[in-house]
């Protein structure tokens, strides 16, 4: 397959505004590094740094900064949604991102395809409590409904043992299982994104 130039955008959904250290940023940057090894240019936005208004429209009016984030998503081939675990669920910031992305179901191209068709989505989760599998499943379902395509092994995560408050940032080294999963996620995401860029889904009849 001929090389295809790809770009990626990581939306990290930490509850901590910049420049506070963030475990969610850490795992997202690790995934971006793995994507870069395949020639993918990536960038990261910490969503809480923006005024993203509640709602399910592409633009919720004056002061809403979601439209600028949306433009970055539209320009990217791969979206990484990264979230911490809070009481067994994705963060409220991640939930808001998915709610805002719901508006894309009404946005279509000239052939009737939803605006996110042809884009790949992957998910990363960190937390010092369990819940990662459920969070990834919920995010996958939402992203698929919106029109993204999820690759095989498209989720990566780290959870500390239950009732032991340790953060991903506190680890001396990345666990081998997480590192290998990040690598596999990136490889499969790039493979799928290249396929979709060369052969988009058929027009909606």
Task: Indicate the topology.
Elements: E1 7-12, H1 23-36, E2 41-46, H2 66-75, E3 78-86, E4 89-90, H3 92-101, E5 120-127, H4 132-146, E6 155-159, H5 176-198
Parallel strand pairs: 1-2, 1-3, 3-5, 5-6
Antiparallel strand pairs: 3-4
What would you call the structural class?
A: alpha/beta
Per CATH, the superfamily is Flavodoxin domain
Poorly predicted regions are: none
- Principal-axes geometry comes out as globular
Terminal Cα span: 29 Å
Main sheet characteristics: 6 strands, mixed
Strand content: 15-25%
Round the mean pLDDT to the nearest integer and report it.
95
Q: What is the helix/strand order?
A: EHEHEEHEHEH
Q: Helix content range of the residues, please?
A: 25-40%
Rg computed from alpha carbons, rounded to a whole number of angstroms: 16 Å
The total beta strand count reads: 6
Number of helices: 5
Q: Tell me what the CATH architecture is.
A: 3-Layer(aba) Sandwich
When the domains are counted, the total is 1
- Which fold name corresponds to the CATH topology? Rossmann fold
CATH class bucket: Alpha Beta
Protein name: Multimeric flavodoxin WrbA
Pfam families: FMN_red
InterPro entries: Flavoprotein-like_sf, FMN_Rdtase-like_dom
Domain NADPH-dependent FMN reductase-like: 9-154
């Amino acid at each position: 397959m001929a090389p295809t130039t790809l770009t990626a955008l990581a939306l990290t959904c930490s509850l901590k505004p910049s420049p506070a250290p963030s475990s969610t940023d850490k795992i997202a940057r690790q995934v971006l590094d793995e994507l870069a090894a395949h020639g993918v240019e990536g960038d990261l936005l910490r969503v809480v740094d923006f005024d993203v208004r509640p709602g399910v429209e592409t633009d919720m009016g004056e002061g809403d900064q979601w439209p600028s984030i949306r433009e970055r998503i539209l320009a990217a081939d791969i979206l990484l949604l990264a979230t911490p675990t809070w009481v067994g669920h994705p963060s409220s910031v991640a939930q808001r991102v998915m709610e805002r992305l719901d508006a894309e179901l009404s946005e279509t191209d000239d052939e009737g395809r939803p605006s996110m068709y042809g884009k790949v989505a992957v998910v990363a989760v960190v937390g010092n409590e369990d819940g990662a599998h459920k969070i990834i499943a919920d995010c996958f379902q939402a992203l698929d409904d919106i029109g993204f395509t999820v690759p095989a092994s498209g989720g990566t995560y780290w959870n500390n043992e239950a009732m032991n408050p340790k953060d991903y940032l506190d680890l001396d080294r990345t666990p081998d299982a997480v590192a290998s999963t990040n690598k596999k996620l990136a490889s499969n995401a790039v493979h799928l994104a290249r396929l979709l860029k060369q052969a988009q889904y058929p027009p909606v009849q």
